[in-house]
Design brief:
The protein has about 325 residues and is α/β, with parallel strands linked by helices. It has one domain: TIM Barrel. About 50% of the residues lie in helices and about 15% in strands. An eight-stranded parallel beta sheet has the order 1-2-3-4-5-6-7-8. The structure holds hypoxanthine and zinc ion (ZN). The site of zinc ion has 6 residues, from strand 1.
């Protein structure tokens, strides 16, 4: 009998919370800087990696936005996403919904077309060469204004067929979801799927706002929901998925040790929690590293592992044919 950790590694699953700019490994940052004739403020790959000692979300975001500044051309975006898909597929991720932050690039003068076409062609390649399904979700940076978010949406609409939904990320505290109610109302009119980061560092009230003001279909992180029993009951009643990122929570000091991580409590509360890597190049691991370390730290059972994989399929924005296909793959892997 395989252990729960071995099972977690082997089974097919979906990844629903991965920022593609957070998959830029230091080696690729250096390679792209060289290719684009850019100087970096770090002497070596090792020196850059050594700077990855974060104390909170903002201390990470400062380095994350700096790393993304090497991305200039369509091929850069393609190569970054392709490297992620190869790693995800090696971890038996069969479906991935990939966040991207256009404002990080358009604010540096990179055209929206360059960003979206580079990422979309990598998704297409992943479908063709890796047999995965892959989709894009455009995230608005919440530290910027509502007006900037509206302008970003407008600029992206010519490429509407290349992304399935919108999200909300960056510095959470002080930038509640309600700041973007009108932008998300417009996105719903456009039939975009709706997600938002809430309850990573921000209070449970931000999760209520994401649900009620933005009308989110999933909550990204949501770990602070456990502080509000009424909210937990509502999330369970709605079967609202939470895209939880254990190694991110550890590296950004949301939890002080993985043995304190709320994943088991979320599952025991009956919530539709999933495992995801968030920014794997910065937080020390991709999908399977997140699964294995969480299983070991919390002594999760084989049943917990199967529930987490099933939740990821249930929470995916795929059509029912693809959902049944992924469910059949999971069932075959469990019984095999
Ligand atoms: N939280 C908020 N914004 C982000 C994150 C995160 O974990 N990763 C990349 N942008
Ligand atoms: Zn995130």
């Amino acid at each position: 009998m395989t252990t729960a950790a071995e099972l977690a590694t082997a089974i097919p699953k979906a990844e629903l919370h991965i920022h593609i700019e957070g998959s830029l490994e230091p080696e690729l940052i250096f390679a792209l800087a060289e290719r684009n004739g850019l100087a970096l403020p770090y002497a070596s790959v090792e020196a850059l990696r050594a700077a990855y000692a974060f104390t909170d979300l903002q201390s990470f975001l400062d380095i994350y936005y700096a790393g993304a500044s090497v991305l200039l051309h369509e091929a850069d975006f393609h190569d970054m996403a392709w490297a992620y898909f190869l790693r995800a597929r090696a971890d038996n991720v069969v479906h991935s919904e990939v966040f991207f932050d256009p404002q990080t690039h358009t604010s540096r003068g990179v055209p929206m077309a360059t960003v979206i076409q580079g990422l979309a062609s990598a998704c297409e390649r992943a479908r063709g060469e890796l047999g995965m399904s892959a989709e894009l979700i455009l995230c608005f940076l919440r530290h910027l204004s509502e007006e900037d978010a509206f302008a970003t949406l407008e600029a992206a609409l010519p490429y509407r067929s290349h992304f399935i939904g919108v999200g909300l990320d960056s510095s959470e505290v002080g930038h509640p979801p309600s700041k973007f109610s009108r932008v998300f109302a417009r996105c719903r009119e456009l039939d975009l799927r709706i997600v938002a980061h809430a309850g990573e560092e921000g209070p449970p009230d931000y999760i209520w706002e994401a649900l009620n003001d933005l009308k989110t279909e999933r909550i990204d992180h949501g770990v602070r929901s456990l502080e509000d029993p009424k909210l937990v009951a509502e999330l369970a009643r709605r079967r609202m998925p939470l895209t939880v990122c254990p190694l991110s929570n550890l590296k950004l000091c949301v939890v002080s040790d993985l043995t304190d991580h709320p994943m088991k409590r979320l599952l025991d509360a009956g919530l539709c929690a999933t495992v995801n890597s968030d920014d794997p190049a910065y937080f020390g691991g991709y999908m399977n590293a997140n699964f294995v370390q969480t299983v070991q730290a919390l002594q999760l059972s084989r049943e917990d592992v199967i529930t987490l994989a099933r939740n990821s399929i249930e929470a995916s924005f795929v059509n029912e044919t693809r959902r049944e296909e992924m469910t059949a793959m999971l069932d075959a892997a469990i019984s095999g």
